[in-house]
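Researcher: Quick test of sequence recovery. Tokens follow.
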């Protein structure tokens, strides 16, 4: 069966068609990107999402369902948007799932972009074969998700897997997070924090500089990884994942940073054999979110 996957970002909308086989394996058949044009508001953006979906279906043929990953908060039971940090306009209360399904004429699901990344890497990428997996993305913020027995674990409220909001510091002097709490890992790994540490304009410049051996960039990312290792140590002890898949900047920086991260995590969890701790870079690239949304649509129809 074929499923449509779409990824709503602040700059671009990405789309793929994924074929899911009877054994559960999946492969992407085609992909495309269009500008989001967020300044035009929810109706216009949703129109572009639907139009991209129809374009991809015309290429590959009929799909059984569609999934959309979004960069913000929504009601997991109704699919109504609650908050988008990086998209302008009156999104609060927008019935995204209903509009998507009506526009495409197929059953639709929506999901958080970090969880979509995790699902894609677990089924199609660096986490294949792992029954328990943690996925983490480092970008503007920190996203992620958890797979248990190969399926997303969403918990009682549909929000489990918010790895960016694991607490890694305590006290009134801990860094303030956008969620309103203090000491969240995201407060120390946001793109603006990392760029400020290294005196660079963007986090991408910091990661590139670290990969090339720039001392200040390396120091900035190592400091960020010190906080990240505390979060990963907690996840290892609570979940015992077979593998942790890293997406975004730290993954792009390569083994220069993943190796020290692994060493620091191993130091923090002496009860776990260091050789059993797997921290690997993501492999699916920028379409991972859309792929995960398609796989979620397949799971919803099963």
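Model:
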């Amino acid at each position: 069966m074929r499923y449509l996957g779409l990824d709503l970002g602040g700059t671009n909308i990405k789309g793929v068609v994924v074929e899911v086989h009877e054994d559960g394996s999946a492969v992407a058949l085609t992909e495309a990107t269009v500008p989001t044009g967020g300044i035009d508001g929810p109706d216009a953006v949703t129109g572009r999402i639907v139009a991209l979906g129809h374009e991809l279906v015309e290429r590959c043929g009929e799909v059984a369902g569609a999934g959309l990953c979004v960069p913000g908060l929504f009601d997991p039971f109704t699919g109504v948007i609650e908050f988008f940090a990086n998209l302008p306009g009156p999104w609060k209360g927008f019935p995204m799932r209903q509009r998507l399904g009506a526009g495409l004429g197929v059953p639709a699901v929506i999901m958080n972009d970090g969880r979509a990344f995790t699902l894609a890497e677990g089924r199609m990428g660096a986490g294949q074969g792992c029954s328990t997996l943690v996925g983490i993305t480092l970008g503007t913020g920190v996203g992620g998700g958890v797979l248990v027995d190969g399926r997303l674990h969403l918990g009682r409220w549909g929000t489990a897997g918010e790895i960016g909001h694991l607490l890694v510091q305590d006290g009134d002097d801990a860094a303030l997070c956008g969620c309103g709490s203090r000491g969240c890992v995201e407060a120390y790994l946001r793109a603006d924090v990392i760029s400020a540490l290294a005196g660079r304009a963007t986090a991408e410049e910091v990661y590139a500089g670290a990969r090339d051996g720039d001392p200040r960039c390396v120091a900035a990312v190592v400091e960020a990884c010190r906080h990240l290792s505390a979060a990963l140590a907690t996840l290892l002890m609570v979940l015992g994942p077979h593998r942790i898949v890293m997406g975004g900047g730290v993954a792009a920086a390569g083994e220069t940073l993943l190796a020290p991260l692994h060493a620091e995590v191993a130091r923090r969890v002496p009860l776990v054999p260091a050789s059993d701790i797997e921290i690997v870079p993501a492999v699916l690239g920028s379409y991972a979110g859309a792929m995960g949304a398609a796989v979620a649509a397949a799971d919803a129809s099963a």
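The longest strand covers residues 26-35.
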